[in-house]
Design brief:
The complex is a heterodimer of chains A (820) and B (193). Chain A is an alpha/beta fold and 820 residues long. Chain A contains 19 helices and 32 strands. In chain A, the strands form eight sheets. A seven-stranded mixed sheet of chain A has the order 3-5-1-12-9-10-11, with helices on both faces. In chain A, strands 30-8-13-14-15-7-32 form a seven-stranded mixed sheet, with helices on both faces. In chain A, strands 16-24-25-28 form a four-stranded mixed sheet, with helices on both faces. Helix content of chain B is 33%, strand content 14%. Chain B is globular, with a radius of gyration of 18 Å. Classes of the chains: A alpha/beta (820), B alpha+beta (193).
């Protein structure tokens, strides 16, 4: 291969280093107006009255919008259409938008916000999922599972009770994983404008232009073909720009009303409120093992703090359990999950979407099991890896599994076997593993169309343009598209012109989420490029009098493999093909194969391939202060094949960085003001200064190993790399702290005060552990019983009431049916 | 032409708050007229069309807005435009020599130092200032110099490597485009000259 696997400058590298990448906030259009949103200062209240008269009369103000202008609800998932662009009658978190001012300048819009008078009638607030379970009233939403419970799920993949009863040892632990936010450096921005024909265009920093397109059509009651959504390059996404955001709809509406371009850029504080980040999750994990540590059954309960709206939460709920079976063989598995509404910014998908929390629980508990049984934690894992091409207890079909190689690499690299347990002075090593999807098996709304489409257009100049709806969020999706087309056609990636993320111009790609782009867009690109190659090859073969199967495309030329002196340039081949076939264009499509999971809720978790990662983290713990320093990380990622190793390494290192932030410092935490100050739930740290994240000074040395065992489902064997490498980092840190100083911190972030608390307890002869101590009573529904493959199952639930298509969205059943 | 500008300036000043300063931006000296409340960042982006420099927080917390003021890295969101009268400002747009990338830019592009690219302009100018005063910085010195610039994508390692590579390839203050795809640059950046 000439392109794939070579370390290259990314195709958009030049634009990024010259400052020419045009982000949404960089756009300026003639006669453009600016919008600002008025956000609720209260976490839960009825809106009794809004007086906009003074604001409407203020200098420069062109338009004031309120909830009355947005009667239609929207939501990213069909099962939770619970948001309005501006709240019509109730606010549900501090930061919920209630009005918008559109003015000639951003300053005038901001000044006029202060003139809007809103009368609120405060309502009692729900601060935590525990409180939500205790108090059903007032309900934050009128839908869900009753009270303030949004979703409930209960799956029994085999009967865990007898298996646990017969296990040699049963380990039960409670874990808590605090919420964190994406903190993309680019604040969300959107520009809306009417084109000369009166059609609406929205440029937005979104990871999912197709879904924004659909929701704009719904919320504005416009035909979708009258709307164009252009995803501008995202200045970081990490999941935070994959939801449909209030300001996008407000900007669009304002452009429709005023007939002028309208820009809304969120402030950094507003980005903290927009959130859609990592769910705080409380977990109870019970695992039965044989004396040698082999897992016989696992029983997991998760309780998610969903915040004020549904967002992706119905899917997030299922992701807190569904991928627990893909790393190690779990013969029987029970998974119960509950998502509660609270009066805080809505949670959604952040890198790893719902899976880092239970992965933390499982990997830390495995470390405890290894210690209890006197086994090496690496060996404990190696002895029970999930098998390649097997089907798991919950009916996920695995592809290639490079986890063994990953573990071996980091064990060798870190000298794990001689250094673990033997490092002096507060230093220690921890190991953990993980696995992630290469694209969700189902789209978020049911359809039978491709998940990704690519069109190629070629003309006599030799130009090749690739069109795809995929969205560049920094991860390198444009580079993947160009490199795959170039590989197939024998070109340099820089030769391929790209048009991406534009719903008017490009075929649909579902978006940059669930690590789906490389695999899905990549396969569509291969198909489109191979079809183009066939057209060019047929014409070239005729002209060169060479059998078409002997032609090779390489070095911008089409050559006879047996006699390279015979050939033509790529451009000559395009000319010959245009003469032979007429105007040239090809398409490629990709839709993942159907999952064997046939039970309701089984749409979350399936993927045509899974990536695997193992990490060893070294820590230094200061016993006097509890301060944890990470000098070095070894991480091995099973990527199938690295299309561009420079970018692949960047994704791994970026994941290590973000994982260390979550492990040690990042928290989207809230506190309740005292009653005399309204009793409101307020964000502790809605600023970058106080939301601690690692800087260049905290970043450790990272040794990255790319394990390349090509997966049959991936383009040139490639699997994902954007999210999986995050997963092992947090538990590896926790396990390393145990190795260093002998205490367990069963929650993240592992801040110095928590380490110190555990050390103090240990010094007093108590259990050297900090973490949650109780799991509230949850009204679990009856289990959906799905026998595993080895117990005669067929992928269906044996007690499902109606034979449900795995696509049926459900709102009121005991189990969730949403697919992401 | 001049008269019209002055008249407009006068009118807007009368409206409460226009400012007029002389600024040398990326080597070009010019008069700039803008609403007096604007930060240097807003003047650069909105009045001069130099959108390479980014907003990240408006509070001096993230480093995305870094530019060089008389050769020193500053946070342009914390400076008022009116404070910069007579200053030399270098933004990311001033790093390249015509179409040729500087050694630092080329290294960033080649080494994966820019993922989403949003923090990149601020980091590039900050790193350039480091190289201007210390041609061969250690890894620790690079990390220290860039510690005020947040990047959420890369984990900083490829950024540090790119600075090291630029220090190697551009040691004489004259970068060359890697891989020979573009002409070698012939001059330094404005502040090196």
């Amino acid at each position: 291969m000439n392109v794939v696997g070579k370390a290259r400058r990314r195709v958009d590298g030049r634009a990024k280093v010259t400052g020419q990448t045009r982000f949404a906030d960089d756009l300026a259009l003639p006669r453009m107006l600016f919008g600002k949103l008025l956000r609720s200062p209260l976490p839960h209240a009825r809106i009794a009255r809004i007086d906009i008269a003074a604001a409407a009369a203020a200098p420069g103000v062109r338009l004031v919008l309120t909830g009355a202008d947005f009667p239609i609800a929207f939501g990213i998932l069909p099962v939770s259409q619970d948001e309005h662009a501006l709240c019509p009658d109730r606010v549900r978190y501090v930061g919920d938008p209630v009005a918008a001012v559109i003015a000639s300048s951003e300053r005038e819009a901001a000044d006029a916000l202060a003139l809007i008078r809103v009368e609120y009638e405060p309502l009692p607030t729900i601060a935590s999922p525990e409180e939500a379970l205790r108090r059903g009233e007032p309900r934050i939403h009128e839908y869900g599972e009753g009270g303030n419970v949004h979703r409930l799920a209960h799956f029994a993949f085999g009967d865990v009770e007898p298996a646990l009863a017969q296990a040699d040892r049963v380990f039960e632990d409670l874990f808590f994983y605090e919420g964190s936010t994406h903190l993309p450096l680019e604040q969300h921005a959107a520009v809306a404008a009417l084109d000369p024909d009166g059609r609406l265009t929205l440029w937005s920093s979104t990871q999912t232009p197709h879904y924004v397109h659909r929701e704009l059509a719904r919320a504005l009651d416009l035909p979708a073909h009258r709307i164009r959504v252009v995803a501008t390059p995202n200045g970081g996404g990490f999941g935070g720009k994959s939801d449909v955001m209030n300001h996008e709809i407000v900007a669009a509406k304002a452009a429709l009303v005023t007939g002028r371009p309208v820009k809304i850029t969120l402030t950094r504080e507003e980005v903290f409120y927009a959130h859609r980040g990592r769910h705080p999750v409380l977990m109870r994990l019970k695992t039965g093992v044989r004396q040698d540590g082999t897992i016989v059954a696992m029983d997991l309960e998760t309780l998610l703090d969903g915040g004020a709206y549904g967002s992706y939460g119905a899917a997030s709920t299922l992701y807190t359990g569904q991928l627990q079976t893909v790393t190690y063989h779990v013969p029987r598995y029970r998974f119960r999950a509950c998502r509660a509404f609270t009066n805080k910014p809505p949670c959604g998908p952040k890198r790893g979407h719902g899976t880092p929390q239970p992965r933390f629980a499982q990997e830390v508990q495995l470390d405890k099991i290894a210690v209890a049984l006197g086994k090496d934690p690496a060996d404990l894992r190696l002895q029970q890896l999930a098998a390649a091409n097997s089907v798991t207890a919950n009916w996920l079909k695995l592809g290639s599994t490079g986890l063994r190689a990953c573990i071996e690499r980091v064990v060798d690299g870190s000298a794990w076997r001689v250094r673990r347990g033997h490092l002096p002075g507060g230093r220690g090593l921890g190991l953990a593993c993980g696995s992630y999807l290469c694209g969700a098996g189902l789209p978020i709304y049911w359809n039978e169309m491709p998940h990704s489409g690519v069109q190629l257009q070629l003309d006599r100049s030799g130009r090749v343009t690739a069109f795809c709806g995929a969205t560049e969020i920094g991860q390198g999706s444009d580079d993947v598209l160009a490199s795959i087309v170039a590989e197939v056609l024998g070109l340099d990636p820089a030769d391929v012109k790209l048009v991406t993320g534009d719903t008017d111009l490009t075929p649909v790609d579902l978006g940059s989420y669930s690590s789906r782009v490389t695999l899905m867009m990549g396969n569509a690109a291969i198909q489109a490029a191979e079809r183009a190659r066939a057209l060019l090859g047929a014409a070239a073969a005729k002209k060169l009098q060479v059998p078409v199967e002997r032609l090779v495309f390489a070095g911008r030329a089409v050559l006879d493999a047996e006699n390279p002196a015979v050939g033509m340039t790529f451009q000559e081949a395009v000319v010959a093909a245009e003469a032979e076939h007429g105007t040239l264009g090809t398409t490629g499509s990709y839709r993942p194969a159907r999952s064997p999971a046939r039970y309701r809720g089984g749409g979350v978790g399936p993927s045509v391939a899974y990536s695997y990662t193992a990490a060893v983290v070294e820590v230094e713990v200061d016993p006097a202060t509890g301060w944890v320093r990470v000098p070095k990380v070894w991480i091995a990622h099973d990527i199938g094949r690295a299309l561009n190793p420079v970018l692949a390494r960047g994704q791994v290192e970026g994941s290590v960085y973000m994982g260390l932030g979550e492990a040690l410092m990042e928290e989207q935490a809230f506190r309740r003001l005292p009653p005399r100050l309204s009793g409101a739930l307020v964000h502790r740290v809605p600023s970058i200064l106080e939301y601690k994240s690692p800087t260049s000074l905290e970043m450790p040395e990272v040794v990255t190993y790319l394990v390349e065992e090509p997966d049959a489902a991936g383009p040139f064997g490639a699997k994902e790399v954007g999210q999986g490498p995050l997963l092992p980092v947090m538990p590896a840190v926790a396990n390393a702290i145990y190795d260093a100083v002998g205490v367990r911190v069963d929650e993240v972030p592992i801040t110095p005060d928590r380490v110190l608390k555990a050390l103090t307890a240990k010094a007093k002869g108590k259990e050297g552990r900090v973490g949650p101590t109780a799991f509230p009573r949850v009204p679990w529904p009856e289990a959906l019983v799905v026998p595993p493959p080895w117990e005669g199952g067929d992928g269906r639930a044996v007690n499902e009431k109606a034979p449900s298509r795995d696509t049926l969205p459900t709102r009121h059943s005991g189990t969730a049916g949403v697919k992401v | 032409m001049m008269g019209r500008t002055e008249a407009r300036t006068h009118r807007r000043t009368a409206n409460g708050g226009n400012a007029r300063i002389r600024l040398t931006v990326n080597g070009e000296e010019q008069d700039v007229v803008f609403a007096g409340y604007k930060s240097l960042l807003e003047v650069l982006r909105e009045d001069l069309g130099l959108t390479g420099t980014k907003h990240g927080c408006e509070l001096g917390e993230c480093g995305a807005c870094a530019v060089l003021l008389d050769g020193q890295p500053v946070l342009s969101c914390l400076l008022l435009g009116v404070e910069c009268d007579g200053a030399r400002v270098t933004t990311v747009e001033g790093l390249a020599d015509g179409p040729a990338l500087s050694a630092l830019q080329a290294a960033f592009a080649d080494r994966g130092a820019a993922q989403c690219g949003y923090c990149t302009p601020g980091i590039l100018v900050t790193a350039q200032a480091l190289l201007d005063r210390n041609a061969h910085p250690s890894r620790e010195e690079i990390a220290e110099a860039l510690s005020g610039n947040l990047c959420r994508c890369t984990g900083y390692l490829q950024i540090c490597e790119a600075v090291e590579e630029a220090a190697r390839t551009g040691a004489q203050g004259h970068g060359t485009e890697a891989a020979g795809t573009e002409a070698p640059r012939h001059g330094g950046t404005e502040k090196r000259a």
